[in-house]
Amino acid sequence: MKLFVVSTPIGNLKDITLRAIETLKEVDFIICEDTRVTGNLLKHYDISKELISLNAFNESQKLFNIIEKILTGKSAALVSDSGTPTISDPGNRLISEAIKNQIEVIAIPGASAVVAALSISGLPTDSFVFEGFLPQKKGRQKKLKQLSEEERTIVLYESVYRIEKLLDELIEHMPERYTVVCRELTKKFEECWRGYPADIKSMLSVKTIKGEFVIIIAPKNWKQ
Predict the structure, then answer these.
(1) Could you tell me the CATH number of the domain that includes residue 120?
(2) Residue 60: its pLDDT value, please?
(3) Do 98 and 138 fall within a single domain?
(4) How far apart are CA 84 and CA 82, in angstroms?
(5) How far, in Å, CA of 17 to CA of 109, rounded?
């Protein structure tokens, strides 16, 4: 009875480990966010497996059936649409229930947008705080105010629909904090913008922006 937590590419399909491919070929079934997305990855590597979707909308209905399936002696792999599962993605409840049921949980590490962005940011990486997606409404301003006093590097995720709003908020709460905004990491149109929030907003305003973003914000009082 084993549950493998398998990292998949965050964009470039070549960014998958040999061990991840081997694991996906050997398990009895694969748990994923979106069967279409994972199906495309498996097709690329000529892998055919039973796929079971597990996401924020169906987790409560499917969770215990998946655990029961593993307890019959099956092995399973948990993947997300991209990157390392459970990092701002579904799966934490599944891992917790697996541990409660004495199912062995094994990490198959690989790509992570957090680590990829940090590695090229040029900002301190010895200590950082990862906040993922900020609350969309309730508690958002309170969180931003707290982060404005943060003395560690800050890592955020943001969607194309709210990136301009976030930059406006950084201009209000952290105007003098050096910031790196990365878009579409590892993909064909990967881009990074560096500077203060107002500078980056000006750079983005002249472009047609798509994709997902990782935002790295310098610690309070950090200087280049």
Answers:
(1) 3.30.950.10
(2) 83
(3) no
(4) 7
(5) 8
